[in-house]
Amino acid sequence: MAPKTVLIVYAHHSPSSFNAAAKDVAVQTLTAQGCKVIVSDLYAMNFHAIATAADIKGKLKSPEHFLYAEETFIAYKEDRLSDDIKEEHRKVAQADLIIFQFPLYWFSYPAIMKGWMERVLTRGFAYTLQNTYDNGLCKDKKAVLSFTTGAPETKFQPDGINGDVNVLLWPLQNGVLHFCGFQVLAPQIFWGPARASPSERKAMLETWQARLKGVLEERPLSFASSELFDLSVQAGARLRPEVKEAYASQPYGLTTGQHLDKPLPPNNQTKAPPYDKH
Amino acid sequence: MAPKTVLIVYAHHSPSSFNAAAKDVAVQTLTAQGCKVIVSDLYAMNFHAIATAADIKGKLKSPEHFLYAEETFIAYKEDRLSDDIKEEHRKVAQADLIIFQFPLYWFSYPAIMKGWMERVLTRGFAYTLQNTYDNGLCKDKKAVLSFTTGAPETKFQPDGINGDVNVLLWPLQNGVLHFCGFQVLAPQIFWGPARASPSERKAMLETWQARLKGVLEERPLSFASSELFDLSVQAGARLRPEVKEAYASQPYGLTTGQHLDKPLPPNNQTKAPPYDKH
Hints:
The structure is a homodimer.
Chain A: E1 5-10, H1 18-32, E2 36-41, H2 68-77, H3 83-94, E3 97-103, H4 111-120, E4 142-148, H5 165-177, E5 183-184, E6 188-190, H6 198-212, E7 229-230, E8 238-239, H7 241-247
């Protein structure tokens, strides 16, 4: 097997944090397996998180009505993006797997990582209007969200005060990663490490380390294939009638987002399906 | 009725954008009704979006293991937060209603607005560990997300390629706004204005203008009352057994997130319930 490249996009301030330890375990474990590991340490890099016209060198097409996605699409094609974006593009281009390591802030990744998504997943580089989801430009790459929570797992159940974690994950995993074509692996969720004992934290890291040994061979979460949708403007990119008919007798919806007014398929955004049964 | 104060947190680069027009309609309509309207124009302010130790004046409690929420909680109580955060706190403190006006970026608000949430909704100011959800410190205030999409509405249906917009809204509305106690009003969603004709765009703004005339009297979206949960550490903040029992015979779950493995209650995050029937 050719050596693989892993990019870790990492967002925590403190080198003594659990997130830092999880990142370090990934660097060590993957390096020991012969992988090339690259880390984008966003706070340490002082990564600029705001998408603005400053991301484009040279003349804007429509300075009087600036549209970020349009302008950066053109700038990408003409090699006029800012140097820091180009540097992140070089890292992503090499990567077979991207690990996003962060603390969950307000049911999402930190703003500095949201800014990475907005600035680095450039139209033309990560997707185009024609190339999204199954056909996204990152379809040969894998991605995994690895994050810590403040709250315990019980709060993120379908009867917990924060609601089902699968609902929280849908916009992050479908709306960003799968949208660009990434094969999204099951998230690695570290539940409340700040309240855990040292031995519990150690056990969490050992679980992650064990998983990392096979992470590059993991099969992804299940999303709805783009082929199931009528992508014509008239149809509005809704599921084809025959697909809906086939699902009418099923107990669950297709995915967390495409739930078809049925109960959500359990663990859709947290566990890969049992592929051997398919 | 005493005059009301409305804060508009606004995130778009361009004064010629539809978002700018929606913000301007809100300023004009609410001002004409006698409201005091304050605008935080995040890009124009060059709002600093990244939560770091620089947000705290003076000595950190644990510089070797920096935890943002902990350190800013202490700094808030000791009046040692940075001036820009204090300025936003002053605006929020006055506001009866906050309107968040933004283009949907990657199924969420732009990073600059995510940064506003992280830095301004400080523990101690917007919530405490004991004061969340129904008891959040912003419980006497209303909030509304007003945003534009690139995609048409059909793509955000339960059978659309982007999935149900209610799922996308749950982390934004429950995980941030309701978490701090805000009474969350139905979102104002402008579907694909960039692809609409000038007369369609005008009609969208007129609908918004008409809504704004009564927005301060609107009843909020329905979330699960904190009283329904057993908040003890042992129980893990899950719904009380008697509540689950009462819902067992219902066709739908309680909310988008607390779905109890049942179909999601339709429009839970997009339409206020018909209160007169309750």
